[in-house]
Design brief:
The chain is mostly beta strands. The protein is built from 3 helices and 15 strands. It has one domain. It has a 7-stranded antiparallel sheet with strand order 1-2-7-8-11-12-15, with no helix packed on it. Strands 3-4-14-13 form a 4-stranded mixed sheet. The two termini are 34 Å apart. The relative contact order is 0.18.
């Protein structure tokens, strides 16, 4: 992990640029902050999906096909710039990209779990054509903040995010396979996106 903050007073007093790059192997929390569940975007019968796992293993010792843990590789970049129009008004622009990939054996084991993208088990698992659990996401956004007083400010944040989905051999999957609480209706995998808008009111009461 590496980061850089560069002050740019030649553009505006208080302006700065921030850059960050992250590479992980078997430690996705350094990239995803707090991945408690897999990523799933749904729009009707279409959905995008991404598995968040530090490692994958399969098979069993009695069957002599047990694997060791196949660690997941992931990397990402983030960039942001904040411009101060005056002491009370500021606007930031930010964006980033994250990529998650599984090696051949890990991919085959996950495809087996999807029930329609591989054959064999453990070290003998082989993914069929079209089944790939690699996925990525990118985002861009902007926030404008008004400092009404030193202790009170208002802000509006608008962001766009896109999830480039993993795929199966058939191009679809029963949603219960990846999201147990959903219905058993098959979902077709396709890249999905969404817009987010947030209005924030912040007030410091202490000290």
């Amino acid at each position: 992990m590496a980061g850089l903050r560069l002050n740019t007073p030649m553009i505006g007093q208080g302006d700065y640029l921030q850059l960050q790059a992250i590479y992980t192997h078997g430690a996705l929390r350094y990239l995803m902050q707090n991945p408690n569940s897999n990523w799933w975007y749904q729009d009707g019968q279409s959905a995008a999906f991404g598995i968040l796992s530090d490692g994958v293993y399969g098979g069993s010792v009695p069957l002599e096909n047990a694997t060791n843990i196949q660690l997941t590789t992931a990397w990402g970049i983030n960039a942001s710039y904040e411009h101060f129009w005056n002491p009370r008004w500021r606007t930031s622009l930010y964006g980033g990209y994250a990529d998650v990939s599984y090696n051949g054996l890990a991919n085959a084991i996950l495809c087996t779990a999807m029930a329609n993208g591989a054959f064999g088990a453990g070290i003998f698992a082989v993914a069929t054509t079209g089944c790939s659990n690699d996925w990525s996401s990118w985002w861009i956004g902007s926030r404008t903040q008004w400092n009404v007083t030193k202790e009170f400010y208002l802000g509006v944040d608008i962001a766009y995010q896109k999830l480039n989905t993993m795929t199966t051999a058939t191009g679809s999957v029963l949603s219960t396979v990846v999201v147990p609480t959903t219905t058993s209706t098959p979902k077709t995998f396709a890249d999905e996106d969404n817009w987010m808008v947030r209005f924030r009111v912040h007030r410091d009461f202490y000290p």
